Every structure is written in C-alpha cells, then in structure tokens.
Amino acid sequence: MKKVILSAVIIAATVFASCKNEGKKETNTNKTEVSKEVATTEISFGVRGNCGMCKSTIEKAANNVEGVATADWDVDKKKIAVSFDESKTNEMAIHKAIAASGYDTEKAIGDLDAYDNLPGCCKYDHTMEMNQ
Questions:
Q1: pTM of the shown model
Q2: Which of 41, 42, 64, 130 has the highest count of CB atoms within 10 angstroms of its CB?
Q3: Would you tell me the crossing angle of helices 91-100 and 52-63 to the nearest 10 degrees?
Q4: For residue 63, what are the β-bridge partners?
Q5: Are strands 68-74 and 40-46 parallel, antiparallel or unpaired?
Q6: CA separation for the pair 68, 47 (Å, rounded)
C-alpha cells in the first residue's frame, strides 16, 4: 500500500512540474523586445584653443551636455566634431557649454571669467583662425 501511495505522489509531482514548466515556456515566447534606435546628428565647428589641456576641457564641456554621444576636438585644425541626439539637445547648447568653459566657438564667445582661470598654456589668441 505504501508503494502505491508513493508512486501516486511521484506521478502527481511529475505532472505538476511539467505543467509548471510548460507555462513558463509560453510566457517566455510571448515576450517582445522593443529596441529603440537613437538618431544621432553629427556636426563640426571651430573652437579656439592651444593644447592638449584645451582639448580635454573643450571635449569635457561638450560631453557634459545631455544627449552628446561623442566630442573630438582637433588641436591643429581648431575644430570639434560632435555627435548628439537632437531630441535631447541642440547645436547652440553645445556652443554655449564650450563657451562657458572659457573657449570661443564660431557662434559663442567664451566666458571671460572662465578664460581668466585657464592655465597659461590655454590662453589662446582671441583672433586666431578656427575651423581650418
């Protein structure tokens, strides 16, 4: 009698376990993943500066703008290339952020107090050509 009851319990447990696993499989197959592709805009514009320290400060200022994905300032060309999400920011916000760090751009004049606090090697000529 004990063997019959034990067999019934094992069969019942097996049936319930298989039903539970089948339910999980159905739930997993019904999940849909939605991927969002972010459209990025790429721009480049001139920024005055002199050296590697300028590069670091200019890129950091641009990268701190929400929505900016990448920023790369070319020391020789005095030009920055920026890619950003237009739904989160715009070109002028990037110009203003760089200007707030003390650097002139094609569309914004650098903050003079920030410029005065730049290291000596970063004090650029305000008439220098940019976007060369």
A1: 0.71
A2: 130
A3: 130
A4: none
A5: unpaired
A6: 17
pLDDT digits (tens, 9 = 90+) for 15-69: 655 555 444 444 455 554 444 556 789 999 999 999 999 999 999 999 999 999 9
The residue with tokens 């220098």 is: 128
Cα(70)–Cα(67) distance, rounded to whole angstroms?
Answer: 9
Q: Which helix (H) or strand (E) holds 19?
A: helix 2-29
- Residue 114 vs residues 42, 96, 101, 124: alpha-carbon distances, Å: 27, 13, 6, 13
d(CA 114, CA 95): 15
C-alpha dist (Å) from residue 46 to 1, 14, 40, 129: 91, 71, 20, 8
Tell me the two tokens of residue 29.
């197959």
Q: What is the dihedral of CA 46, 55, 63, 90, to 10 degrees?
A: -10
